[in-house]
């Protein structure tokens, strides 16, 4: 483990690395929460707009706001042709710059383990959602091996280049999520486990995807050429022992939803 923070600065690289995964899990998540049309949405930690796009395409929002601390990620999201009507705001999940009861739904996709104080982030979502509205999130099961690139990170650790952990990995536990939602005063709490699979056409496809990751990319950029070649050989031996063919990776996320109590 290292204290160097994870930086999200490459919207296109992040989309290939994690945006595809976000949409795979997000599709399941969106169907599960079952939103109604013509609602006011807030996407907390929207990043490059991967999940925001699903909302815009499938949920007929009355209004849609995305908030994220990375201006580089938001710049990528603003360029997407299907997100031109979305209001993207630079800001912090622990201090949402919105009035009370401003939204009907607030979602936090693959973000809660990046929030230094998860309880504050959940309380903020509950504050800005009107009574009767929904607060929901999904997050990779970080401590239970559910992160899709777990084996990549383990191999980096084996060569002395561990990737930085998010500040709150414990927040992805189902029991922790439930406790956070209860503490925020929400009712009708439900949880769900979401498992998704992604196929890479060959090792080069996976390798080029990993190069664009915010944490793995930083680790690989810090290596010299000899170290990168050695790491690549180790990773390929682990994920593709036969040396050819497609590679399947699996991700497992924990999801939660709850209702803001009516007054």
Q: What order do the helices and strands come in, and which of them pair?
A:
Layout lengths: L10 H23 L6 E5 L5 H9 L4 E6 L2 H8 L8 E4 L12 E7 L8 H11 E12 L9 H9 L15 H10 L3 E14 L2 H9 L2 H8 L3 H15 L7 E13 L4
Parallel strand pairs: 1-2, 1-4, 2-3, 4-5
Antiparallel strand pairs: 5-7, 6-7
Give the gist of this structure.
This protein has helices at residues 11-33, 50-58, 71-78, 118-128, 150-158, 174-183, 203-211, 214-221, 225-239, and strands at 40-44, 63-68, 87-90, 103-109, 129-140, 187-200, 247-259. It has 263 residues and is α/β, with parallel strands linked by helices.
Could you explain how this protein is built, in words?
The chain is of the alpha/beta class. It has nine helices and seven strands. It has helices spanning 11-33, 50-58, 71-78, 118-128, 150-158, 174-183, 203-211, 214-221, 225-239; strands at residues 40-44, 63-68, 87-90, 103-109, 129-140, 187-200, 247-259. Strands 3-2-1-4-5-7-6 form a seven-stranded mixed β-sheet, with helices on both faces. The longest helix is centred in the first third of the chain and has 23 residues, at 11-33. The radius of gyration is 18 Å and the shape is globular.
